[in-house]
Amino acid sequence: MTRFLLLLACLACASTVNAPAVDAQSRPRPGQEVVLVTGSTSGLGREVAGRLGATGAFVIVHGRNRERGIEVVEAIESGGIGNARFYAADFSSFAQIREFGETILRDYERLDVLVNNAGFGRAPDERMVSQDGHELRFQVNHLSHFLLTRMFLPRLRANAPSRIVNVSSGAQQAIDFDDVMIENNFSGGRAYSQSKLAQIMFTFDLAEELAGTGVVVNALHPATYMDTGMVRRAGLTPRATVGEGADAVMQLIMSPDIGSGGYFNRMQPARADGQAYDEEARRKLRMLSEELTGAP
């Protein structure tokens, strides 16, 4: 299996970060590739984690629910090919993200794939704030992944060729830099769409930074209205299966000639919202993200 890095976008989690799911001694075998999928205890993340385990990878499973995390680890290891370990971290807390990142860097000498999959959807339609005082969707979907990814970059570079996949959405809305946290005229849809565009803008920036390093980074809209809890909580009718979304994510992980710095709609290259191609807007977002997260 081609060495890879998956940038997965994480679900908000609420327990300690250093709790392995099944076996505290579960470790990668010599030469085994290590992949991290955020938000992998349900939905798309769970499906992707299972598929990666089936390739023989060591899967770092992340989520907020320990019981579900154990189920995912057991499912991966029952296949007799890959193995896994569960960690929890709350993406509404930068302190927990830092602890999570430091724990992973301490526990694993390599990281080949990072999939930034965890996320907070458009429902409920009310403004909520993170533990750090920021609009919740912007922190969970973008800022915390920004911080975690920056922490992992040296390890990803050292293990190149590697891959980062940012799970974004076709729902995108330009960021109002005069009201990034949407204190005025709030809607859950606007907050979600803004945070998802931020992920794509970060992807484009990161691809430029990592050019020539062997680290490939891309973003995608995996599928429209997959049959997940997030979609159903928003009152939407599913139009696609989780398996269809996982096919698109796995393409960005496994394809040997996918290129870097792209945005994909399912399996095809696509064009994101125009603000993603505005270098000044990306610079503003980068500076704001660095300021708010204290990322290295």
Order of helices and strands: EEHEHEHEHEHEHHEEH
Determine the mean pLDDT: 91
Q: Which overall shape is indicated by the principal axes computed on the Cα atoms?
A: globular
Return the domain count: 1
SS-based class: alpha/beta
Uncertain regions: pLDDT < 50 for 5+ in a row? 1-25
Helix content: 25-40%
Proportion of strand residues: 5-15%
Number of helices: 8
Textual characterization of the structure:
The protein has 296 residues and is an alpha/beta fold. It has one domain (8-293): 3-Layer(aba) Sandwich (Rossmann fold). It is 40% helix and 14% strand. It has helices at 43-54, 66-78, 94-107, 136-158, 188-209, 229-233, 242-254, 279-293; strands at 8-9, 34-37, 58-63, 83-88, 113-117, 162-167, 215-221, 263-265, 268-269. α5 links the parallel β6 and β7 (215-221). The longest helix is centred in the middle third of the chain and has 23 residues, at 136-158. The radius of gyration is 17 Å and the shape is globular. Mean pLDDT is 91; it is low at 1-25.
